[in-house]
Specification:
By secondary structure, the chain is α+β, with helices and mostly antiparallel strands. It has a single domain, classed as Alpha-Beta Complex (Spore Coat Polysaccharide Biosynthesis Protein SpsA, Chain A). About 25% of the residues lie in helices and about 30% in strands. The protein has five helices and 17 strands. A hairpin with a 5-residue loop joins strand 8 and strand 9. The longest helix is centred in the middle third of the chain and has 17 residues.
Length: about 240
């Protein structure tokens, strides 16, 4: 295991230039945490998910790889469990410091559902994740992950018309991607643009728990109930349809 001090990371915050309230909030937050950062000017697109993906790609393309890169979206807040250092295995490719209740289900083209986060215990205080959606706080560690993430987000948006984080969820199981038991950042309702902001906060402000192979998830697909089962394929965990 190695210690990664957040103060030693290259911290990039994705933000549209005219989002003054968000920019002030993240500036105040990171100043309070003692973390130096830089803004990466976001790209305004319709739908907004395209601009979000392009912002992540812009940041990753410019990363030299000399220091770990922490990419934050500008609507985050810190949890009570914030730690100034992250501990991860030496071969870690990425660490999600912000988590989501939504997991992508491989059996239906990686559509997201709540409470199907495929993850397992990697070490005390650390989970290995395989299908988590959300990209509001990702610590990027290796060039091989960066290259795959760029390709995955491009394919998601161009080839499939998906959200970019769906592309990332699709590849997590092929890499060494982790998340702490106690997340560091979440997306705060106070900085969302509509009245459903509480849903965003509820989805990202939770404590994940490991799932066992063989766990089952009841899903509703086009109004019909179906059951998925958590399966191990080599070193990957994925959701496949349960036998009738």
């Amino acid at each position: 295991m190695r210690e990664i001090r957040l103060a030693d990371c290259d911290i990039a915050v994705l933000s549209l230039v005219d989002e003054t309230a968000r920019r002030q909030a993240i500036t105040d937050l990171l100043a309070r945490l003692g973390l130096a950062f830089r803004f990466v000017d976001g790209i305004r697109c319709n739908p907004g998910r395209i601009g979000c993906g392009l912002g992540h790609m812009k940041t990753l393309r410019a990363w030299s790889g000399e220091r770990p890169l922490l990419v934050l979206e500008d609507d985050v807040a810190d949890t009570p469990d914030f730690q100034a250092s992250v501990f991860a295995p030496d071969d870690a490719d990425a660490v999600y410091l912000g988590v989501s209740r939504y997991g992508a289900v491989e059996a239906i083209d990686f559509v997201g559902f709540v409470d199907v986060l495929a993850n397992e215990r990697a070490a005390p205080g650390l989970l290995r994740i395989h299908n988590m959606l959300g990209a509001h706080a990702i610590l990027h560690l290796t060039p091989r992950w960066r290259d795959a993430a760029l390709e995955a987000m491009t394919s998601a948006m161009v080839d499939h018309d998906w959200d970019p984080d769906r592309g990332l969820a699709r590849i997590q199981g092929h890499f060494k991607v982790y998340a702490p038991d106690l997340p560091t950042f979440y997306q705060t309702a106070a900085l969302q643009s509509d009245s459903r902001g509480w849903m965003q906060e509820a989805a990202t402000r939770f404590i994940p728990a490991p799932l066992e192979v063989g766990a089952r998830a009841p899903l509703i697909i086009e109004g019909q109930p179906r059951e998925a089962v958590l399966t191990r394929d080599g070193k990957r965990l994925l959701w496949l349809w349960a036998a009738p």
